[in-house]
Amino acid sequence: MLLKRLTEASGPSGHEDEIRQVIYEEVRDHVDRVYTDSLGNLYAEKDGKGTGPKVMLCAHMDECAVMISSVDANGLLQFRHVGGLDDRVLLAKPVLIGEKRIPGVIGSKPPHHQKGTERSKPVSLEQLRIDIGASTREEALQHVQPGDVAVFATTYEEFGANCAKSKSFDDRVGCAVLVEMAKLSFDMPVVLAFTVQEEIGLRGAGPAAYRVQPDIALVLEGTLASDTPGTVVHARATALGQGPALSLVDGSSIHNRKFREHMMKVAEENGIPYQMRNTTAGGNDAGRIHLTREGIISGVVSVPVRYIHAPAQIISLGDYENTVRLTEKFLRSVEQGGFQR
Amino acid sequence: MKEWLLQLAETCGPTGHEDNVREVLRELAAPYADEIRVDVLGNLIATKKGKKGGKRLMLLAHMDEPGLMVNHIEHDGFLRIAPVGVYANLPAGYLISQRVEFPNGTVGVIGSGAVKSPGDVSPLTLFIDIGSASREEAEQKVRIGDFCALKQAAFELGGNKIVGKALDSRASCVVALEVLKRLESPEHDIAVVFSVQQGVSGGRGAKPAAFAVDPDFGLVLDAVQTGDTPGAMRSEIRLGNGPAIKLLDKAVVVQPQIKNFMIQQAQAGQVKHQLEVQPHRTSEAGGIFAHSAGLPVGALSVPIRYSATGSELVDLRDLEAAAELSVRILEQYNLS
Known about the structure:
The structure holds two protein chains of two kinds. Chain A is built from nine helices and 19 strands.
């Protein structure tokens, strides 16, 4: 199960080795060449017949995670964020540390010992520790070193009405779409760019676009679904199950209208549901790509993800499958000369 | 320059949707350029060939004005909006009762849902009324993702002064056009870039344009808020005192040899000028000087009052002086 393999692999920003290896194994038999660059971006190239514009599909491999910063005398581990995590989602979550996947649990002072004022406030990062069952600093250091990274120990499960739960759907769901595209054949050159370090400032994508020099770039993302209590309809980012989301504006791009209108047309012609990503918050690799070199025409299609940047994220498998379909149909439209800048 | 400014100030060109402004500028620049092209992002690049062995210089002015994006259309035809760029940082109440225009000519007025106190107005309470009674009717004119900008007439005030929206960008565009016109047979190759998306992330359009032009020197035109009105923020900049030679802003420190060269040129040509130290705003100069391989930059700012409002105010004599000084800088440029 592709989504299971991809989401359960570890890949904190800057530490994408494990997920990169998993993706490499998924794509290597389907493409003309696979290679990495000095940042760790993974490129899988399909030459096709060499006719038509060069298309780069982009998805980031990295995920929000934590890094061990120091070890207390009693063997508990202090840690810091890697990427945008909300402190309030961390307490009581199991994690896996480092390449050896050392299990740990994020803990804090028991509620029994908390004063009333403490209970009414979220537990801050400074009060949290990772417990790996060590009782002294020396014992802990035999298993874990400062600088080791940890991911949430969430497993992939399908449940409910065609939904799935796992960690890191942001952006393994995009990686999965790219892997599916690797298995197809196209006339034009297609480069699948699996990027590093998106969650800590879109750092991998700029060098990737600079190297690939595509005529067209499409970023596949996992984006926030905010069809949850406390949001008004007109400010919702996306809703689960309503189809792939097309970006309007976010913190890193004002998205190309011609690109979006073309996507809408492709979706409508093929009976694929879609929605607009209505919020202007967030940002993704397209923010770097579209400004690379002399400018690159770029677009973003996202799978809505509930509880994004949290240990247990939920997607609709229908949204995922429709995103795969939309991406393929988009590539077919480019193949047939249906989209030019 | 006055007629150009009045025309451009009334043209709708929100950030990322500068098409209308670009078409006007393309037409106005065409008689004076050897070549004109538009790049992927929508930057308009007009070039003029210099003499053999000359350098390649870039003059850059942005076309965009602050915009609002439609992100939802209510069943009864009201448009919900999300602020982009500078509006995202201004109190939302400022937008109530403003008239707005879309690039396709659709006009609307901004209202707000009832709130207990003025401070409770937020982008979420705002809406645009375009006179449509239903979503279906509204969708005939506006789609989700469309941008609009303020709609305001531009006019002359007192003597030599112009009031209008979008002067922050269009004043520089007019100066750049005038420079292009005056550089009949320039010493150096000149690329005049009318850039897009200055209003977001300190200037997005300028970067790919600078990469494409790859100049030996870039001169960036923009506007700077004055400090000469009652209770104004502390600033040395005064309307009518000429263009401000930028020394420093939040994104760039102009290199001393460039600063000195620009001041020398102003003095030699007896062009009225002032000096700009603006630690609170970023600029396209900052966006391009460290982009790609790096690029020496200088910048001139047209003094402006009431920046980012529907009634910005500039002095045409400042524009005239900015054009004159820009021509001198681009003609005499001899730094290596």
